[in-house]
Design goal:
With 385 residues, the protein is α/β, with parallel strands linked by helices. It is 24% helix and 23% strand. The radius of gyration is 21 Å and the shape is globular.
Length: 385
């Protein structure tokens, strides 16, 4: 796992949380407790030590009704699932109604809003899935920190972004590399698409199999105002949404893109630039991309947070001329994602305005299980004739 890149003000908060969070009685020892175990048939056994708990329950991504946890005489609460398909699953526990991470598992979801976003466990397939490490050429993920004049609320105005360079990246190549700007969602950090989405492994796999072109992928911190990520109420404030969007657009266009184009051998042409993202990042990608066809010819959105989108204000009334817009790809999960209806509404509006929309609906909810699959489908479409 790539170490989390934590914007300045978050570091102190996370240190405080690490010591202030309530800890389960029993403290998850002995050290030989195997808290999560994947069986050969895809079943997962979970174990959580809390001898004094009255009840412990399991929350498991992609499973509507996880199995009940049963207490053993030693105070270990355990449950085993039915066989599950190959996937990366997010999970967490609840002890007497209080959320708990798995202290035995170092793989967790970095998050700016809640410490209890869960741990990860992978059910492997008979062959490595596209998001799993495999014996194939790997690209490199680089972290960059810079002083921003656009984003507010960062300690020392220090922001960051990650850049994936594909296997065999050659800065002296005769043709500049195409570049995908890949944005995270609300509450994520810049590291979201690598630590959680495994975008670098997906790109390695797609490129190695000849399914996607060799490209550079840029994953920035996708906020314009860090105050926008303090609590959910920010989404109810149109002015706060607008400020966050405006400042992030400025950061992307005037700070991040020039730095990437100076440091890496990437194309400066719109036909070689793509932008997409998930949830908040999908909203940003669609609105920035459609308002700047001179910069992005390939635009996508995964479960885009277009709930409060003002079409007349936020989207051009007509599509760009010619082939300036080569792809407009809008995807959303269909299971318990409240954004499916707004995304369908947006798709209908765009089609009425003659935008060339490709609409994709994927089984699943508002989660990285869906967004990994979205990236698997979206990336191979980019930069093709």
């Amino acid at each position: 796992m790539i170490p989390p890149a934590i914007p300045g003000f978050v570091i102190g908060v996370m240190i405080v949380l690490a010591f202030a969070l309530p800890r389960p009685v029993g403290a998850q020892k002995p050290s030989d407790l195997k808290s999560v175990e994947v069986q050969a048939d895809g079943r997962i056994t979970f174990r959580y030590l809390d001898p004094k708990a009255i009840s412990v329950s399991l929350k498991l991504e992609g499973v509507e009704k996880p199995p009940a946890m049963v207490r053993t005489p030693a105070g270990v609460w355990t449950a085993t699932t039915q066989p599950l398909p190959p996937q990366i699953y997010n999970y967490s526990f609840s002890s007497d109604g209080e959320p708990r991470l798995d202290p035995q598992n170092h793989e967790y979801k970095p998050n700016l809003v809640s410490f209890y976003r869960g741990n990860f466990v992978t059910v492997p397939g008979p062959t490595p899935q596209l998001w799993e490490p495999a014996d194939l050429p790997h690209g490199t993920v680089h972290r960059h920190v810079y002083t921003t004049k656009c984003v507010t609320g960062l300690t020392g105005d220090q922001s960051d972004y990650f850049v994936y360079t594909p296997p065999g990246y050659d800065p002296r190549a005769s043709r500049r590399y195409p570049v995908l700007y890949l944005l995270h969602g609300w509450s994520d950090l810049a590291v979201g698409w690598t630590d959680v989405g495994r975008a670098h492994l997906i790109m390695d796999s797609l490129i190695a199999r000849g399914l996607a072109r060799s490209m550079v992928v840029v994953m920035p911190l996708s906020y314009g105002e860090m105050s926008f990520v303090r609590n959910w109420d920010a989404w109810e404030d149109p002015a706060a949404r607008a400020r966050n969007w405006t400042r992030f657009q400025q950061a992307l266009l005037t700070e991040i893109m020039p730095r990437v184009e100076s440091a890496y051998d990437v194309s400066r042409e719109a036909k070689d630039r793509a932008i997409t993202g998930l949830s908040m990042g999908g909203y940003e990608s669609i609105t920035i991309g459609l308002n700047h066809p001179e910069k992005f010819a390939w635009v996508g959105g995964f479960s885009s947070a277009v709930l409060e989108l003002d079409y007349a204000k936020d989207i051009p009334g007509t599509p760009p001329a010619g082939d300036a817009l080569r792809l407009l790809w809008i995807a959303c999960g269909t299971n318990d994602d409240e954004l499916i209806a707004p995304n369908r509404k947006l798709t209908d509006w765009l089609r009425a305005k003659k935008f060339p929309v490709t609409a994709v609906e994927t089984p699943g909810g508002h989660s990285y299980m869906v967004w990994r699959e979205n990236l698997v489908q979206f990336a191979p479409l980019l930069f093709r004739p």
